[in-house]
Each structure stands twice: as structure tokens, then as C-alpha cells.
Amino acid sequence: MIEALGPHAGFILAAYGVTIAIVLALVAWVLIDGRSLRRQLADLETRGIRRRSARKAALDRAAAP
Amino acid sequence: MALLDLANPTRFMTLTDRLLPWLWAATALVLGTGLYLAFFVAPADYQQGETVKIMFIHVPAAWLAMFGYGMMAVSALGTLVWRHPLADVAAKATAPIGAAFTLVALVTGSLWGKPMWGTWWEWDARLTSVLILFLMYLGLIALWNAIEDPNKAGRVAAVLILVGSINIPIIKFSVDWWNTLHQPASVFRMGGSTIAPSMLYPLLICAVGATLLFLALSLMAMRNEILRRRIRALRLVAAASPAGAAA
Asked: What ipTM, to 2 d.p.?
């Protein structure tokens, strides 16, 4: 496979390798950031600190028969 | 659903929650097909040999580097003119992704340039203007992080984005306006593409796949930014109330 890429195989593989590394780093950053933010939001909500819309929804649920 | 409905962040979160799995599946399918065609079907170039395989990632990355900034410019207008609640969220979320794709374009261009031009880098108009684009992305990310109030940061960043958008036509037409080492446009040009269909179609499929990847990452980053702003708002509420301050 590598021989099929000719005398400049190293440049081709390096280009694809760097691209994969950068894209994987982006995906990991987005996922880790999202997980951390959801945890912080859940922590605030368990302390009873909620958005107005969430408070209203909770009150509506409580008032429902 | 009207476009205005998406102005509601909660509705945006619900919609993207449903859309993202499909978008990731489409990304994997299209990008996988494009890369398969690039590696196993597209022929070697008669002059550049197998190094032309770098084109299938370099060109989509370069297009998306400009596309990302274009999206930010539209978002900046949304922030300044229409005060759309998600406009600044979109611009801020797109910046790191645009910067990453610009970095891919610069690095893969350099790795393609060395065997073909005999140099890793040349201070010509195309390469320099793309480097400026990368530095502008970094500057904007730094600006958003330097100003604590997201609304104020959004307005300042929007002005800077619009001023910096002058660089986009400079990048596009640099190869026509100046004598550069970089080749002129060969896909979207008057008189049609100069690339053989056996290479052009894999390139276009890779470009569509990379665009889907860019959009999927941008939507996820936007969702994160919405959560970040909710957390900030809740912390302000907690700090303002005696019970929250005590907790």
C-alpha cells in the first residue's frame, strides 16, 4: 500500500495523519466540553437553581391533577 | 418551521438533538465514500503523481476555512443588525472549527508544496492571506475569551469579523491579482473545471463530506455555547440570591 503511494508516500501519509489528528482533537474537545457543561448545569439544578422556564415547567407539573 | 423559530435556544437544542445523529451518519457515509474514491479509484496525476491525493483533503479544508469565516460574517450581521439570539453563539462556536480547518489547509498545503514546489512555505499572496485568516480566527477566539460579558464580547467580535471579511475575496482572487506560486482556481472558474472528472467527482464528494463534518461540529459547539451561557446566567442568579450565595 505504502509503495503504491510512490516516492512521496511520507508526505501523503503525514498530510492525512495530521488531518485525522486535528479532526479527532476537535471532536474530543467538543464532546469533553459538552459533558463538562452538562455536569455543571445538572449540579446547579440539583441545588435548586433553575431557569425561569424550567421553574415554570416544574410548577405546572406540580399543579397538575 | 419558520427560520425565526430557531431563534429560540431551547427549540434549537431540541431540533439539533434530533438532527445530529443523522448528520453524523451522513458525514461518515459521504466522507467515507469520497476518501475511498480518492485512494482507490482516482488516478495519479500525470505531473504530480500520487501527491495529488493530498488535494482531496487540502482543497476541502481550504474551502471550509473560507466558508467558516463566511458563516461568521453572516452571524456578525445577525448580531449587529437583527440582534438574533443565536447569531453570536453561532459565530463564537464556529471560530475554533474554522481555525482548525484553516490549520489543516496550511499544514497539508505545506506537505504538498515541499515535494512539488521544493519548499515548505513561500510568502506569496495566497499562502500569506490564508495565514492571516488563521491568525484572525485565533485573535477572535482570544477576544471572546478576554471580555467577560458575552453580549458585549459578541458585539465587539462582530465588528472585527466584518472588518476582517475583506480578507476572504483577497484569498479567493489572490492567485489572479498577483503572481503566485500557488496554482490558479481549477474547479470553480469561468469556462469550467480544468480537473479530469475521475479526480473532480471524488474531490467534490470529499468536499461535501467535509462540509457535513464542519456543520456537525459547529452545531455541537453551538449547543455547548448555549449551555455555557445558561450556566453563566444561573450562576449570576445564584450569586444575586442570598440562598444561592450561601450555597
From this structure: 0.89
Residue B179 has pLDDT above 90, yes or no: no
For chain B, what is the HEC assignment?
Answer: CCHHHHHCHHHHHHHHHHHHHHHHHHHHHHHHHHHHHHHHCCCCECCCEHHHHHHHHHHHHHHHHHHHHHHHHHHHHHHHHHCCCCHHHHHHHHHHHHHHHHHHHHHHHHHHHHHHHCCCCCCCHHHHHHHHHHHHHHHHHHHHHHCCCHHHHHHHHHHHHHHHCCHHHHHHHHHHHCCCCCCCCCCCCCCCCCCCHHHHHHHHHHHHHHHHHHHHHHHHHHHHHHHHHHHHHHHHHHHHCHHHHHC
State whether B112 and A15 contact (CB < 8 Å): yes
Q: Does any domain span residue B130? A: yes
Residue-number span of the structural domain to which B148 is assigned: 28-40+49-185+199-232
Q: Which residues on B lie below 8 Å from A25 (Cβ)?
A: 100
The answer to whether the beta carbons of residues B217 and B158 sit under 8 Å apart is no
Residue B13 lies in a domain: no
- Asked if the Cβ–Cβ distance from A50 to B234 is below 8 Å, we say yes
Q: Does B81 touch chain A (CB under 8 A)?
A: no
Predicted TM-score (pTM) of this structure? 0.89
Which residues of chain A are at the B interface, by a Cβ-Cβ cutoff of 8 Å? 4-9, 11-12, 14-16, 18-19, 22-23, 25-27, 29-31, 33-34, 37-38, 40-41, 44, 47-51, 53
Nearest CB to B50: which of A12, A33, A48? A12
Domains: count for chain B: 1
Kindly report, residue by residue over B181-196, the tens digit of the pLDDT: 787 777 777 677 778 8
End-to-end CA distance of chain B: 41
